[in-house]
Amino acid sequence: MENMIDSQQRPELIANRSSEEIADKVILAVSTEMGIPASELALTRTFEDLGIDSLNGLSIMTELENTFGVHIENEAIARISSLADVVNAIQNALFEKAGGGRPNV
Amino acid sequence: MRFLRKRVEVARMSERRVVITGLGVICSLGHNLPDTWAALSEGVSGITPICCPDTSALSFHNGAQVRNFDGLKHFEKKKLHLLDRFAQFAVVAAREAVQDAGIDWTTRLKERTAVITGSCVGGQASEEELFVGLYRDGRTKAAALTIPRVMANAPCSAITMEFGVTGPSFTTATACSSANHAIGQALLMVKYGKADLAIAGGSEAPFVFGHLLAWDSLRAISPDTCRPFSKGRSGTILGEGAGMLVLEPLEVAVARGAHIYAELAGSGFSADANHLTAPTEDGPRRAIQLALEDAGICPKQVGYINAHGTGTAANDSAETRAILAAFGKHTDNLPVSSTKSMHGHSLGAAGAIEAVATTLSLARGLIPPTINFLQADPDCALDVVPNQARNASIDCALSNSFAFGGLNAVLAFKHWNG
Predict the structure, then answer these.
(1) Predicted complex ipTM
(2) What is the nearest CA distance from A77 to chain B, expressed in angstroms?
(3) Cβ–Cβ contacts within 10 Å for residue B58, how many?
């Protein structure tokens, strides 16, 4: 159960989060999956340098999808390299879900 | 005909004797072999109130759980998420068994090593987490690795990756006989040269609420404790854990100077073709006789049986009749104990934990007792080694497993005089 993040919160309550809030959730998800203290994580860190393999990556992305109530396409996941890319992918998915198209970031 | 006889002789010549050179175990009695054997030989109970999940809605509250198990002591965090509790137990036991055997890995040996594991119910914790998340907690996504954590062969796969072994590897799922079928298959592989080493056993971790509720409905679990073959027995007690054996050809073990615990001499398999949950006398009897025949030992040579002995009314009386039918008068001189009275019934791990117990009984000359025994039951007229271990010089021993669905598997062991 420990890797279930915000499972009690309904996705609609989390919509339109600021990028800082999304970043916090991303760092929490990575920290939970990998056992790395959040204080050692920054958005510039990459999956590769954090030792996040394909299975860990899949787990992290699924937990974040659940947290934000979004679906992230396989192609978007495949392009992810850094934690900042994860934040962008979630922002894009939230905008798409809200029907607003892609944000200008 | 002459040609046929020749072929049979050639086949016999190509049979290799198989010995046990490594043991690993984790169960309610201990997280390793020394602790578990100490408890078995002292008649210590591993049965306690179930600490997790909450059992207040159930009619039973006791279980044989592995206490104080911290997966992080055995696996790095990023790997831990890949393994359900039953797979963690399997790897922990396999590491101990392989270290115990002192295997010196080569590329060739890795290619010639088989891993065969048993499990009855697979990754129950991961399955329950899925359903609790979806139906109670309002999640919209299942954890990404639910499928590979739940699959019954996850422990087998994890062990192959742990040691980098690439030989024939698979999982048997025959309920309470799963581990005996796994060990029996490993014996066949090594005996007939399909593998030069085998890591075989079983693992299980069934303590999640939904699964316990299903056992409750089956009315097979004791509200009290596990009292095999005793008057007043009221059902079995669930357990968890893993047992693993390292098997190799006798000649190889001798040549490399390995410590040999015992010979795994034969196996016998049968089906009742009768009932989903009620045992028969005939199916188990035939499995016992086939194991004796396969091992080339006569009933009189058997000095100990580690019984299936679940503590249910039906199993223990049917098993008694099967033993009486197979051993006749020799039954009077044949100690039969159920170590489930101490480590509970760990389903797909049961046969493996009991194979470890049987192997050490032969090697150490000590029969673990049937504890919680109150009074003899005329339906179970056996010498069940009640409540206290017994010193005994044993030449040959059997370990019985009889599964729901009527699938029976018996292993035959011989003392190693080396």
Answers:
(1) 0.78
(2) 14
(3) 16
